[in-house]
Automatic annotation (TrEMBL), chain A:
<dbReference type="Pfam" id="PF01590">
    <property type="entry name" value="GAF"/>
</dbReference>
<keyword id="KW-0067">ATP-binding</keyword>
<dbReference type="Pfam" id="PF07568">
    <property type="entry name" value="HisKA_2"/>
</dbReference>
<feature type="domain" description="GAF">
    <location>
        <begin position="48"/>
        <end position="193"/>
    </location>
</feature>
<keyword id="KW-0547">Nucleotide-binding</keyword>
<dbReference type="GO" id="GO:0004673">
    <property type="term" value="F:protein histidine kinase activity"/>
</dbReference>
<protein>
    <recommendedName>
        <fullName>histidine kinase</fullName>
        <ecNumber>2.7.13.3</ecNumber>
    </recommendedName>
</protein>
<dbReference type="InterPro" id="IPR011495">
    <property type="entry name" value="Sig_transdc_His_kin_sub2_dim/P"/>
</dbReference>
<keyword id="KW-0597">Phosphoprotein</keyword>
TrEMBL record, chain B:
<dbReference type="InterPro" id="IPR011006">
    <property type="entry name" value="CheY-like_superfamily"/>
</dbReference>
<feature type="domain" description="Response regulatory">
    <location>
        <begin position="22"/>
        <end position="132"/>
    </location>
</feature>
<keyword id="KW-0597">Phosphoprotein</keyword>
<feature type="modified residue" description="4-aspartylphosphate">
    <location>
        <position position="72"/>
    </location>
</feature>
<dbReference type="Pfam" id="PF00072">
    <property type="entry name" value="Response_reg"/>
</dbReference>
<protein>
    <submittedName>
        <fullName>CheY-like chemotaxis protein</fullName>
    </submittedName>
</protein>
<dbReference type="InterPro" id="IPR050595">
    <property type="entry name" value="Bact_response_regulator"/>
</dbReference>
<dbReference type="GO" id="GO:0000160">
    <property type="term" value="P:phosphorelay signal transduction system"/>
</dbReference>
<dbReference type="InterPro" id="IPR001789">
    <property type="entry name" value="Sig_transdc_resp-reg_receiver"/>
</dbReference>
Amino acid sequence: MAPSTTFTLAPLPFVDDVIAPVVGDPDATRRYLALIAAATDRLMGADDPALMIEALFELIRDELRLDLFFNFRRDGDVVQLEACGGLTPAQQRAVMGLDVGGSLCGRAMRERRVLHLAGIQRSDDPAAAFVRSVGIDVYLCMPLFYGERLLGTLSFGRRAAAPFTDEEQRLMSLLCHYVALAKHRLRIEQALREGIETQTRLLAELNHRVRNALQVAIGLVSNEVRSAADPVTRAALARAAERLQVLASAHRPLYATAEPGLVDLAALFGDVIGQLRGDEAAPEIIVPEPVAVPIERAVAAALLLDTLLTGPTAVPRIVMTMCRDGGNEILRIAFDGVGWERGVDLVGTDRLISRLCHQLRATLTSEGSGCLILVMPHDGGEHRHRVPD
Amino acid sequence: MAANIGTASRTDENRFGSEALKLLIVEDEALVAMLVEDALTLHGHHVTGIADTVAAAIDLVEADRPDLVLCDVKLADGDSGITAAQLIADRGIPCVFLSGNCPHQGGHPLVIGCISKPFRAGTLGAAVHAAYVIAQGGRPGDTPAALRLYNAQ
């Protein structure tokens, strides 16, 4: 004999619809509203999908005279038990091995409908075999949807032969919609967490590979330096290795900061000067506020400094200041030291300096004896400064 | 003799063989632009200019009417090399991308293909030559693997 079954679709009920039938009972209205408010609070603040359902069950079990619940989760074609309550340990083990497809929950998922069954103890429906075996007589199984997407089922059972009233079903339907929303939120958060973890792993791998590749390149060129007999060739190769080292310096801090695309320009300049003139020649670099620039511009600025340092210049005192010109933020860098004013002459004669200034949208001017001023847009945007030809 | 005739009918090496081309480089990285310029000059071509924005590229294309343009995908001031290539191709000038991240499509029959970075300076000349032959409606004898064609037959 089949249990008496009611099939209903699951439209989202409004809170007003849920409490309307009990309006004549002020106590029941108050209890329902309190349950909805408490359930919403717990569901929206939850961070574990299984504990969330267990907490909901504890919240509503007395009011709705519930004896057990099952929550099955559907991931693609896989359906598995997420949480259950009201069962003995042996019954829990049994439900873990349940053929969900042949159960009432499987039927609710296939038919994408709410199942409300009463008289289960007197029925011989094989799909109800498990709930019958644990003494349940009334059973309400609701599919959990987010839009058209089926997330699983949430079902409740009573051992007492008392079918769920219409208002109880509406209340549980509303709570199930909230559960589906909360589960969707948790799935999105989990996907985001996994995405961030993947990104972090990839960034670390990228960091390793970039540094490693640059280090290998430096090693290869340095090896050629050692084996070159001609002093001119050796000097040229040493310059190449030195510039590769500048590139490596610009990339070294790149992936270890909160903003992975930016490089601390003052630190990079200190590093470049240390490489060329030795660590004992630490330059004085005055920076009123941090100057972080995109990697492409940092590399170009560091190569420009490296090229300027190859001339007969002293280790400079460097002052970086920021100012605004119209809507643009301008970075002004003063290099103060013997021989630095001669950098201006190189703009017209040194191809690399000319190209790097063009890339940076930078101008080089001298300001008195021994002072070179580099002015460039800070953000690398569309600042229309005079560009050297 | 027959073999020579046969070769000539399959490719257009002889028609475009040793032509020195006028080339424009659209590239925002100074060092890469210099490397490309040196490599192309070494192959006997003439580099008419280097641009690093869409506007600069169009100005130079209209002023110099190069035979072919090599264009990076990411340009200065946030400009797109894909946009630059489209506008250059619209003006009847063939274009080849030069990028570490080649676009999947050219989007215009005159956007011939893409040379992947990092590239070997030695293959750049052959790749440019092959792209030019294709742009003229011919069939290159040997297309370097570094050149990925968008309308490969």
